[in-house]
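Example (one chain per record):
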Amino acid sequence: MADDSAARCPVCGGDSWRIALRGSDFRIDMCTAGCVGRTVPPPVYSPDLLSDACVENLTQRDQAESGHFAFANRILDLLSRFQSSGKLLDIGSGRGHLLMSAADRGYDAIGLEAAPGVESIVGSFPQHSFAPKSFDVVALNHVMEHLDDPRSALAEIERILKPGGLLAICVPDFSSLMRRVKSIGWQGLQPSQHVWQLSSRSVSMLAKSAGLETLIVQHSNLDYRRGNGSLLKWLALRSMLTLAGLLKLGDNAIVIVRKPLGTS
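Predicted structure:
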């Protein structure tokens, strides 16, 4: 198995790791300070993954509307507590669910996507450069865990945000109850796609290192369906998801952070 023993934790900068989980062809190493996990060997990004394996497919669905739009509107509901209009950049905009929802609410919304998408600039972040103080709102909806260097990405987002601007970061939460229960079978793990295994805590720490202040931390659960399993197992799973909600240990984290006013 390939390894990168020189890899450093993007949060604390340490280079000491312990094995947290082991699969048949990968493992998850955890920073010994407990900051983040990393996938070994690291996945190689390909735009082909977007068609069927997008992590956004894991967000909760309901029968009334697409789960993609439901989750996008949940993010926008949180953002609108502080900023209900303005110029919005959706990094990793995928099929455009958040973009379309934001436009419907009156945001001037554009996306950045590695593959052609709806109302999107084709490019990668942070390689694609924007002018300083360009945006009122930026979204990273299940994107940060894919980035080779999330610390540098957040520094770049801080640069392109206006003072008082908001950033929404959504990640599968490695510290969640379901990850502990499901272990190597947890669907948020995605070792073929995720470079990092993050949590709401590590996201807030990374944001702080970029000069951003955390305003809201909220958790829900990824999409769990009954499938062909027994009714008893399904009821047990539903009980576990309810418990995760009560303990605020859901495995789908939303963190809203802000660039302080008065910063350059």
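Caption: The radius of gyration is 18 Å.
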